[in-house]
Amino acid sequence: MAIENAVEGCVNETFAAAMAMAQSLTAKDASVRAAIGPIARDEMRHAQLAWSVAAWLDTRLKESERASVRRAQNAAVKALVVNASRAVEHELVEELGLPPPSVARALALELASALWSGGIKSPGRLSATNGTWDRDDRKWA
Ligand SMILES: [Fe+2]
C-alpha cells in the first residue's frame, strides 16, 4: 500500500495534477479550459491526499520498508521523466494545451527536484530554461 501510494499518488497523481493545471491555463479552446479546471483541482486534491497518507505511513514503516518505498518512488520518477519527454501530437499541444515534451519533461524534473527528492524548488528555473507560457500569444515559447 505504501509503495502504491508513493508511486501512483505522490508521483503520477501529482504530475497529472500539474499537467491538468497547465492545460486549464493554456488550452486554446475556452470550453476545454473550463472543463479541465475542475479536473485539475480534483487531481490536486487526490495528490494532496496521497502526500498526507505518505506522511502518516512514513511514521509507521520500518527503515527497510521506507527504503523500498523510496526505491519504488525513484524508479517511478525516472519513468515519468522518460514518458514526459515523448512526443505528443501538435493538435494536443495547440488545442488542448498539453505542455510540449520539453516543457512536460522540465515540469517532471522540477517536481523531482522540488518534491520527490526532498530538494528545494528554485523559483523561476522552469521558465528561465525550458520555455514559458505566453499569455498574449497563447502558446509555449
Ligand atoms: Fe486522480
Describe the structure.
There is one protein chain. The protein has 141 residues and is mainly alpha-helical. It has one domain (2-140). Helix content is 72%, strand content 3%. It has six helices and two strands. It has a two-stranded antiparallel ribbon with strand order 1-2. Helix 3 (63-84) packs antiparallel against helix 5. The radius of gyration is 16 Å and the shape is elongated. It starts with a helix and ends with a strand. Mean pLDDT is 80; it is low at 119-130. The protein binds fe (ii) ion. Fe (ii) ion (FE2) is lined by residues 13, 43, 46.
Question: What is the compact description of this entry?
Answer:
The protein is mainly alpha-helical and 141 residues long.
Strands, helices and their partners?
Layout (H helix, E strand, L loop, with lengths): L1 H25 L3 H29 L4 H22 L5 H5 L6 H16 L8 H5 L3 E2 L4 E2 L1
Antiparallel strand pairs: 1-2
Helix pairs in contact: 1-2, 1-3, 1-5, 3-5
Search tags:
binds fe (ii) ion, 141 residues, mainly alpha, 72% helix
Order of SSEs, N→C?
HHHHHHEE
Number of helices: 6
Number of domains: 1
- N-to-C CA distance: 40 Å
Strand content: under 5%
The distinct bound ligands, ions and cofactors come out as: fe (ii) ion
Biggest β-sheet description: 2 strands, antiparallel
> Over all CA atoms, what is the radius of gyration?
16 Å
Low-confidence stretches: 119-130
**Strand segment tally:** 2
Work out the helicity level.
over 70%
Shape call: elongated
Average pLDDT: 80
Structural class call reads: mainly alpha
Largest sheet: spatial strand order: 1-2
